[in-house]
């Protein structure tokens, strides 16, 4: 295995450990603090989508408050390094091999691909034209991810667990899979997001509030990580957290984390799985995203598909069988039997600034300047910034 591959930690210091550790630090029975967080009465966690550990350090001048907190070791987010997988890891306290949301898109029981952010079909030209078919009834999130979420466990233990996320996230498939059981508080912008977090920890009841900020990731995708729009957005996040810290209750903790980092790509230099015959021969489905692809082979064609993808990808990435990826721990130390069919027969993860686009069925995604999903340090490592306690 090449030296740029960062396999997620098998135990402790991962994104999945954040909420259980906070609940333990609050004195909640049944949870373990594997991150050595300060004791507190109430806690809040802000997830800044796309805030990678390396990016924070590279652009520390734009985020002096956040960078000043980044003195410890980073977290690993798991694999793939993508929002739907990471939020489910955070919300369930388990790695992707257990919770089963194994990518930006992956195989679902009826033979197609699930796009968990929309909980709808993915991977056809009709999908690209906006005609995705909802799978909320055919494959409900509670069936796809049947384990109890951290929010459900916390509520059972007497904790007021709140969700401060955009209103459109209410009752989505991903929210149901990852965060069901929480008290939903829709927020519109940084102002009410910060307000929900700082007022939650002032409650006389034991309270844990999760908040989500998504615009930094958007700026990175559209303009590239490190671009001026991205840097100005990072500066706004820095000011938000600093202002929240000034208002934080004395006996509360605020933790700032992220779901993945990001790398910049040149769309003109990408491989295209929709037009390259070698990447289609013997292939039934292609899931995942530009930086990390699940490839599902026709019966008996796995080794031929793996060889063809490796030859085409060359030194720009690593191509392995799904079995090897599981053995190497990419999906965590445990992969449930129900999750096995969701993992590609072949997996392709890309190094440096490379990628495998799908220009016909993913035209929008294929044009993005910033991407993530792979196992580089830039994508895998994220901060755990702790204030208070």
Q: Major β-sheet, in short?
A: 6 strands, mixed
Q: Report how far the terminal alpha carbons are from each other.
A: 41 Å
- Overall tally of domains: 2
CATH superfamily of the largest domain: Alkaline Phosphatase, subunit A
The assembly state of the depicted protein chains is single chain
Estimated structural class: alpha/beta
Q: Give me the Rg, rounded.
A: 20 Å
Uncertain residue ranges: none
What would the average pLDDT be, to the nearest integer? 96
Residue share in β-strands: 15-25%
CATH class (first level) name of the largest domain: Alpha Beta
Here the CATH topology of the largest domain equals Alkaline Phosphatase, subunit A
A few lines on this structure:
With 389 residues, this protein is α/β, with parallel strands linked by helices.
Keyphrases for this structure?
single chain; 2 domains; Alkaline Phosphatase, subunit A; 6-stranded mixed β-sheet; 389 residues; 4-stranded antiparallel β-sheet; 19 strands; Gyrase A, domain 2; alpha/beta
């Amino acid at each position: 295995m090449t030296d740029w591959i960062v396999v997620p930690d098998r135990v402790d210091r991962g994104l999945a450990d954040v909420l259980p550790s906070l609940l333990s630090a609050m004195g909640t029975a049944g949870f373990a603090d594997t991150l050595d967080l300060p004791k507190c009465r109430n806690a809040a966690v802000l997830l800044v989508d796309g805030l990678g550990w390396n990016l924070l350090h590279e652009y520390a001048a734009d985020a002096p408050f956040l960078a000043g907190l980044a003195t410890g070791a980073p977290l690993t987010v798991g694999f793939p390094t993508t929002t739907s997988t990471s939020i489910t890891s955070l919300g369930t306290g388990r790695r992707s091999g257990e919770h089963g949301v194994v990518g930006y898109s992956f195989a679902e029981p009826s033979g197609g691909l699930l796009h968990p952010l929309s909980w709808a079909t993915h991977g056809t030209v009709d999908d690209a034209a906006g005609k995705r078919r909802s799978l909320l009834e055919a494959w409900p999130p509670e069936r796809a991810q049947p384990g109890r979420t951290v929010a459900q466990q916390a509520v059972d233990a007497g904790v007021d667990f709140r969700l401060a996320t955009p209103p459109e996230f209410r009752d989505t498939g991903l929210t149901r899979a990852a965060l069901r059981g929480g008290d939903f508080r829709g927020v519109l912008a940084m102002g009410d997001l910060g307000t929900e977090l700082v007022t939650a920890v002032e409650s006389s009841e034991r309270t844990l509030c999760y908040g989500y900020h998504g615009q930094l990731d958007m700026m990175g995708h559209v303009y590239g990580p490190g671009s001026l729009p991205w840097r100005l957005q990072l500066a706004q996040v820095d000011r938000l957290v600093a202002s929240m810290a000034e208002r934080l209750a004395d006996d509360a903790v605020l933790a700032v984390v992220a779901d993945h980092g990001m790398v910049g790509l040149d769309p003109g230099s990408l491989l295209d799985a929709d037009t390259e015959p070698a990447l289609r021969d013997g292939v039934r489905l292609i899931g995942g995203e530009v930086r990390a692809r699940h490839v599902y082979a026709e019966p008996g064609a796995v080794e031929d598909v793996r060889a063809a993808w490796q030859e085409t990808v060359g030194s720009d990435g690593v191509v392995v069988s799904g079995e090897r990826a599981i053995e190497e721990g990419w999906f965590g130390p445990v992969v449930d039997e129900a999750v096995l069919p969701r993992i590609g027969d072949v997996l392709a993860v890309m190094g440096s600034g490379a990628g495998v686009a799908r220009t016909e069925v993913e035209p929008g995604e294929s044009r993005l300047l910033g991407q993530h999903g792979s196992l580089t340090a830039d994508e895998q490592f994220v901060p755990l910034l702790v204030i208070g306690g």
